[in-house]
Amino acid sequence: MTNNPFRLDGKVALVTGSALGIGASIATALAAAGADVACHGKDDPGEATMDAVRKLGRRAIGMAADLADRAAHTELVRRTTAELGRIDILVNNAGLIRRAPAVEYSDEDWDLLIEVNLTSAFRLSRLAGKQMLEQGSGKIVNIASLLAFQGGILVPAYAASKGGIAQLTKALANEWAAKGINVNAIAPGYIATDNTAALRADEGRSRQILERIPAARWGEPSDIAGAALFLCAEASKYVHGHVLVVDGGWMSR
Ligand code: NAP
């Protein structure tokens, strides 16, 4: 144990959607800081991420579950607590995007995105929050998006879900800040993952996006990990209800 406010020794984290992309990078960074990690993906329980966590000398479990299935939320928190002993950190990272013009946007896609991107974050926070309230401490980090602030193009359900995530973050922070729980969010900019594969494949859109990023490059999943570690650690103990933009400068432009 050290007095380093960025260490997470003895802590247990559940990171949803940590089989790949941003979630995998966050899970690995938390393990490097000393946390044991419950990994998760929809189909892949996060084998590669578990390997990375174990190589860092930390314990890992992996769970495959579709967050559109509400029973999965209870099971994720139950298994994390049963198998790793407690839950100190919840990172609501799993999410998906579907693109279509608004008049063609299907009810099915709307319902799925709201359920997975927003409702699951609320229900997981409620489940983990109960335990954090009992132990008098906890950290919840929600992964929002620049589309918590902007409307985007052809992504009405995604923008609505991420706007909702930013508001949920503030609502939970207001209730739980005095009870030892920090609830914050990260709004990543344009990061090179499966989520943005279609955008990066569209030469015109890709060029327009790149031209607007002051850092002059797409972000990498690892660009998000440092911000996540800060919000999961003692270092951020007086930070509540904040949506931290990590975007290569996009929002300043
Ligand atoms: P990604 O590489 O596509 O990873 C998404 C993760 O979420 C995967 O592990 C996936 O599991 C999981 N997931 C998707 N649908 C799920 C479902 N129905 N049930 C359970 N898990 C599900 O995307 P990413 O870019 O790392 O995205 C991570 C988060 O960052 C998302 O919330 C996304 O909205 C947000 N974000 C991304 C960007 C960006 O530019 N990439 C920008 C802003 C915000 P499987 O792999 O098993 O399908």
UniProtKB/TrEMBL annotation:
<keyword id="KW-0560">Oxidoreductase</keyword>
<dbReference type="InterPro" id="IPR002347">
    <property type="entry name" value="SDR_fam"/>
</dbReference>
<dbReference type="GO" id="GO:0008678">
    <property type="term" value="F:2-deoxy-D-gluconate 3-dehydrogenase activity"/>
</dbReference>
<dbReference type="GO" id="GO:0047936">
    <property type="term" value="F:glucose 1-dehydrogenase [NAD(P)+] activity"/>
</dbReference>
<dbReference type="InterPro" id="IPR036291">
    <property type="entry name" value="NAD(P)-bd_dom_sf"/>
</dbReference>
<protein>
    <submittedName>
        <fullName>Glucose-1-dehydrogenase</fullName>
        <ecNumber>1.1.1.47</ecNumber>
    </submittedName>
</protein>
<dbReference type="GO" id="GO:0051287">
    <property type="term" value="F:NAD binding"/>
</dbReference>
<dbReference type="InterPro" id="IPR011286">
    <property type="entry name" value="2-deoxy-D-gluc_3_DH"/>
</dbReference>
<comment type="similarity">
    <text>Belongs to the short-chain dehydrogenases/reductases (SDR) family.</text>
</comment>
<dbReference type="InterPro" id="IPR020904">
    <property type="entry name" value="Sc_DH/Rdtase_CS"/>
</dbReference>
<dbReference type="Pfam" id="PF13561">
    <property type="entry name" value="adh_short_C2"/>
</dbReference>
